[in-house]
From TrEMBL:
Keyword Repeat: no
SUPFAM superfamilies, per the entry: SMAD/FHA domain (SSF49879)
Keyword annotations from UniProtKB, A to Z: Membrane, Phosphoprotein, Transmembrane, Transmembrane helix
Source lineage: Bacteria, Bacillati, Actinomycetota, Thermoleophilia, Solirubrobacterales
Top-level taxon: Bacteria
Spans traversing the lipid bilayer: 6-25
Domain FHA residues, every copy: 85-137
Pfam families, sorted: FHA
Protein source organism: uncultured Solirubrobacteraceae bacterium
Record-given protein name: FHA domain containing protein
């Protein structure tokens, strides 16, 4: 009597396991497709125009007097809202200058600040990471006009 129930539970467990693996694979493929599309849009793909030989990230970095983050999409913010980050700003869910109402944002997620004459962004050890132009930040990175910063589902554009 218990044997059919046991077999049914085993098959149910295997089915749930396969559905989970299918969901993980689908999510990974979706992220890979999104990365490939944004790479082509940024001019990184095979059709990209070559950079000038003297061009480096630090030389192209924003050095303007007033720098801003413009909201593309973020819960709790109106698209197009501007935040002056000239004096530096911290982004996150907690007690910060730019509050992000996103479940994937840490309380102190990322920091935009001036270092010398260059504006940089740095992840503050967040759980889910900060993305600059769809690339995961692995340390402070200089910001360039038009760069896109993504924290969870929230996206900001950098202007200098």
């Amino acid at each position: 009597m218990l044997e059919p129930v046991s077999v049914g539970l085993k098959f149910g467990f295997v089915a749930v396991l396969y559905l989970f693996l299918l969901w993980v694979a689908r999510s990974a493929l979706k992220d890979l497709r999104r990365s490939a599309q944004t790479a082509d849009e940024r001019g990184i793909g095979p059709q990209a125009a070559p950079l000038a030989p003297e061009a480096t990230g630090i030389h192209q970095a924003a050095t303007g007097d007033q720098v801003m983050l413009v909201v593309e999409r973020a819960a709790g913010h109106q698209s197009g809202s501007r935040y002056d980050v000239t004096g530096g700003a911290t982004l996150g869910r907690g007690d910060v200058e730019i509050v992000i109402e996103d479940a994937f944002a840490s309380s102190r997620h990322a920091r935009v600040e001036r270092q010398g004459g260059v504006t940089v962004i740095e992840d503050l050890g967040s759980t889910n990471g900060t993305y600059l132009n769809e690339d995961l930040l692995r340390g402070p990175q200089p910001l360039h006009p038009g760069d896109r910063i993504r924290i969870g589902d929230s996206v900001f554009t950098f202007h200098a």
